[in-house]
Amino acid sequence: MFTSFELKNVIFPNRIVMPPMCMYSATEDGYVTDWHRVHYGTRAVGGVGLIIVEATAVEKRGRLSNNCLGIWDDGHVQGLSELVRLGKEHGSVMGIQIAHGGRKAWGDELVAPSSIPFPEMGTPHALTAAEIKSVIENWRQGARRAREAGFDVLQLHGAHGYLIHEFLSPLSNRRTDEYGGSLENRMRFLLEIIEAVKKEWPADKPLSVRLSAEDYLEGGLTIKDTVQICRVLKEHGADLMDISSGGLLPASIKLGPGYQVPLAEAVKKEVGIPTIAVGLITKPEQVQEILLNGRADFVALGRELLRNPYWVLAAKPDRELWPWQYHRGIPAN
Length: 333
Ligand SMILES: Cc1cc2nc3c(=O)[nH]c(=O)nc-3n(C[C@H](O)[C@H](O)[C@H](O)COP(=O)(O)O)c2cc1C
Known about the structure:
Elements: E1 5-7, E2 10-12, E3 16-18, H1 34-45, E4 50-57, H2 77-89, E5 93-99, E6 111-112, E7 125-126, H3 129-149, E8 153-158, H4 163-168, H5 183-186, H6 188-198, E9 207-212, H7 223-235, E10 240-244, H8 261-271, E11 275-278, H9 284-292, E12 298-300, H10 303-307, H11 311-315
Parallel strand pairs: 3-4, 3-12, 4-5, 5-8, 6-7, 8-9, 9-10, 10-11, 11-12
Antiparallel strand pairs: 1-2
Helix pairs in contact: 1-2, 2-3, 3-6, 7-8
Bound molecules: flavin mononucleotide.
């Protein structure tokens, strides 16, 4: 886990990732606050290789909560660039997840491929073809602002039942135009976002996509579909797949340590693309097993890094890794 990894022009110092996690702590206009500075800065001091800043909305109506970070306005760049500076200063590679909540967004203006509501939420407006183009343009502008803020990894949120996932899954996409029907059509929205984003995102920096590899529902997305999707994403220039699952609709999921690892492993092996494994991974032995068996290239620790921002330092009590200010705290075995 302490072996570096090179992807395009970016060198990751180790294989530990902090996955995107909403902090619900932005101002109502989506601006960075001290909470974010402390929270992300601490994980960088803690030696995390790649920090992916939480779901950051490309449109105001796409926020997942009233206090989600935003990237829909040029004014957001300054605060985000401070997070990049803080993270880089302490040795982390800084990434950001850009997102649109679609029918699961916060507020009254819900949009989706079809007007099928998420249980107990409002009925979304089915985007017209012209509206789809304008949403895609907003993803492009989000990518431009992420570049201007100085991030080194851009991640598109295509998981957990949000807008991109809603297009991908046949359970939420019942369109009869070129954006619905076959898998090829359901992927069109994501592919058009990728093409738009590539006009802004530097070719020498990694582009990541997070997907829900399984809907765990009859008639929903399966790992077989996901492998096919990832093949096409790779052809279109995706560099790093972050493999999660679920979230489209309530489903029964067998949770357990590393339960999503086989999904990341299938993508890595069948598509030949670097992957991040995530989900109930908490122990160094688990991380080593995943990496040494070539099941994924990176391992993300979500809630574990909320509990312990110094998890990486604890895994290697070594003067080279630890910030000099903390050397007197290195355990003497
Ligand atoms: C507080 C919290 C906020 C989250 N927010 C996001 C998010 O913004 N984007 C996302 O893709 N996943 C989000 N997730 C999911 C995590 O990135 C991760 O996939 C999940 O927690 C499973 O990993 P873990 O078992 O290591 O925590 C969130 C999870 C938590 C606990």
